[in-house]
Amino acid sequence: MRKRAAALSLLFCLLLTAGCSRQEEAHSEYLLAMDTVMTLTAYGESGEAGLDAAADIIRDLEGLLSVTDEASAVAELNRTGELEPVDNDLAALLDLALELGERTGGALDITVYPVVKAWGFTGDRYQVPDGEELAELLERVDWSAISWDGQRVELPEGAQVDFGALAKGYAGALSAQTLREAGVTSALLDLGGNIQTVGSKLDGSPWRIGIRDPRDPESGSYLGELELVDQAAVTSGGYQRYFEEDGETYWHIIDPATGYPARSGLISVTVVGDDGALCDGLSTALFVLGREAALDYWRTWGGFEAVLVEEDGTVTVTAGLADAFTLTGEDYTLSVAE
Ligand code: AMP
Ligand code: MG
């Protein structure tokens, strides 16, 4: 697989570089990681080496955070209930996850993992769990019961964690940092819908990122377009992983208060900001919170912008995106939140 990806990447480079100067050379790398297909593109002569380093970082992070790879640090934590010492990246993710757990009133809760498993969203054997089983599992869902002092992490009896709500955003942010350090000034990283940009396009104009139409996911059409420079745009959507049973749709974003897929009225949340890991954690949390609480969160904490899409076709963008967002989808109405 890696050989094929390398060959593809070489072909892509050759095609794109015909007639280009070295500063304009496009390099691309494709990898299957974190349960998704990633496409990393960087421009200029440092691009290739930078992308190799970024891909290594993503694979290393997967090796650290995977809940299904028994050799990962997170799998060890889930197996034994404790971990010390804690790798720097895992420490940063724990800090962020617990901070967001607190700020969102538990809408983001990494201890929801046993519930996610019961629904079959890990392993793709989807099922509606029994109500009693859910109630039992919910008793162990509580981010605030995690003991973490910066050195040692300990989980309460029976609890398990999963960083799936933040991992791709964190990986994108670290990859972007690696590319910048390698001297890359223009790159677009697509980590399975988690977008991270470095700088702007080669001609100096902003990157243009499409936001998928969550009411028509099969068509691949977009509901709008965002202009970004040097920022991340992370989308959490009910359409990204779901199953249907008896006419009901169940998706992978769980409300930790109920153990059921979050039904807040939102069907897609895109968070834009400088910190990709924060954007990822927030996209999941704001999806759970719903429009009003999400906007309250934005007004209270700031540091990001968002596009909130509701099932009735209402699209709300926060004030900082008023100029950067263009609505293109039919049957949607746009408002700007102040
Ligand atoms: P994302 O795609 O970033 O919204 O993350 C969704 C993934 O995070 C799911 O596939 C679950 O593994 C996990 N997850 C679902 N609901 C929550 C939640 N409320 N808090 C933390 N993690 C969650
Ligand atoms: Mg997320």
The distinct bound ligands, ions and cofactors come out as: adenosine monophosphate, magnesium ion
Quote the beta fraction.
25-35%
The largest sheet, given as strand count, sense and whether it forms a barrel, is:
9 strands, mixed
Mean pLDDT, nearest integer? Answer: 93
Structural class comes to: alpha+beta
What is the approximate shape?
globular
Kindly provide the radius of gyration, computed on alpha-carbon positions and rounded to a whole number of angstroms. 20 Å
Distance between the termini: 48 Å
Helix content: 25-40%
Spatial order of strands in the largest sheet = 1-2-6-7-10-13-14-15-17
Tally of DSSP β-strands = 17
Please count the helical segments.
Answer: 9
Order of helices and strands: HEEHHEHHHEEHEEEEEEEEHHEEEE
Weakly predicted, low-confidence segments: 1-18
Q: How does this structure look, described?
A:
The structure is a single chain. A nine-stranded mixed beta sheet has the order 1-2-6-7-10-13-14-15-17. The chain has nine helices and 17 strands. The longest helix is centred in the first third of the chain and has 19 residues, at 47-65. It has helices at residues 2-17, 47-65, 73-80, 88-103, 113-118, 131-138, 167-181, 276-289, 291-301; strands spanning 26-33, 36-43, 82-83, 147-148, 153-154, 186-191, 194-199, 207-212, 222-228, 232-237, 242-245, 248-251, 266-273, 305-310, 314-318, 325-327, 333-337. With 338 residues, the protein is α+β, with helices and mostly antiparallel strands. The chain is globular, with a radius of gyration of 20 Å. It is 33% helix and 26% strand. Strand 1 (26-33) and strand 2 form a beta hairpin. It binds adenosine monophosphate and magnesium ion (MG).
